[in-house]
Amino acid sequence: MTTVEQARDDILRTKRNKYIPRGVSNGNVLIADHAKGATITDHAQNEWIDFAGAIGTLNVGHSHPKITEAVKAQVDKFLHPGFNVVMYEGYIQLAERLCQLTPGSFDKQAILFNSGAEAVENAVKIARKYTNRQAVVTFTRGFHGRTNLTMGMTSKVKPYKFGFGPFAPEIYQAPYPYLYHKPDTMSESDYIDQQIEEFEEFFISTVAPETVACVVMEPVQGEGGFIIPPKKFVQFVRAFCEKHGIVFVADEIQTGFARTGKLFAMEHFDVIPDLVTVSKSLAAGLPLSGVVGRKEILHAAEPGELGGTFAGNPVACAAALQVLDIIEEEKLVEKAELLGKKLEDKLITLSKEHAFIGDIRRLGAMVAVELVTDQNSKFPNKTKASEIVNYANGHGLLLLSAGLKGNVIRFLAPLVISDEELAKGLTILEQAFNQ
Predict the structure, then answer these.
(1) Burial, 105: exposed, middle or buried (Cβ in 10 Å; 0-12, 13-18, 19+)?
(2) Which of 136, 290, 320, 395 has its CA 20 to 30 A from that of 11?
(3) Is the predicted pLDDT of residue 400 greater than 90, yes or no?
(4) Cβ count within 10 A of residue 65
(5) How far apart are CA 280 and CA 288, in angstroms?
(6) pLDDT at residue 1 above 70?
(7) What span, in angstroms and rounded, lies between the C-alpha atoms of 108 and 195?
(8) Cα(342)–Cα(365) distance, rounded to whole angstroms?
(9) pTM of the entire structure?
(10) What CATH class has 3-60+331-434?
(11) Which CATH code for domain 67-329?
């Protein structure tokens, strides 16, 4: 980097601190110049391997040529006439594709929004309208967004909820299994049965099922630490909802679009949700989200009751249509499983050298490692997780932590990552663990 370029970056960092609130966090202080695949290049032309994927929004990678071509073509036509003012083809085509691709052979409809939180809020609105009920049930450790309603649905207090209340009423958090932290004296089968019993008890002690509009579940808890629930538990929750007329909503915002080795993570559990919320990797980094599901549920709202000024932006729709093609053409569902296995193998190797590595878990390429003070107590080791993440982010590897106690490192690398990029990233990761 030349002296002039260094001075420009220093000015930009100074302006960031002056004009942008500290509430917006930054994993490091690099300033991106351009990005391709799974590599970001900064102003100094240093390369950074991306294992964060903009928190799971880049399954097809940075600047995929088919995405950029489609976006440029759409920009030349029009930017945004507003779908509720003038319809356009991209919104309709994308709604059709999403209805075809999400689980379930019943008649479906889809509505588009901007962000994941918007999708979740609207899924709740739709469920309430359809059932004429008020209550919403989510799960311990769940994350659903930063708006007022979705903060209430979210489990982690700091940094997401602290000081931002009061929150919307009629939101309740049910227990969610965490196999790694089951009692040592209890078998896995007995623990799962206990969690099912606690879930049933929850609807006696906390909220009556006939007042519940929807249960919103992440198939794999994202911010909660990539916690994968037992299949038996997920299927019980689905059956419970069906029995009591509760809308079952799968929050696939982080798990969707091939991340877990299936197009949608609920497919691993042989469960068909009533509604699915989607966002993040749907549009390769452009703001877009949606609610997809049973036609009779989505059809319950009257004209004008759903929507938003920028909802279903045509440029984002153009990107999303290409994303769906790329997933199929480049076999990203299969690549997710291969990538996840390579990450898992590296973590298993590291676990033989480091006693602070506790649990390694993955579904497809949704991979996490939980760090502990020792493998017997399983006490969370947030300090070690922070050290590893900070080292990586300072040495060419973009890395994220997660977990209610901040002691989980999660991996959300683009599914199109090359062997060379992956090898480079894993080398830096190993150095971070060995520091």
Answers:
(1) exposed
(2) 395
(3) yes
(4) 10
(5) 7
(6) no
(7) 32
(8) 9
(9) 0.96
(10) alpha beta
(11) 3.40.640.10
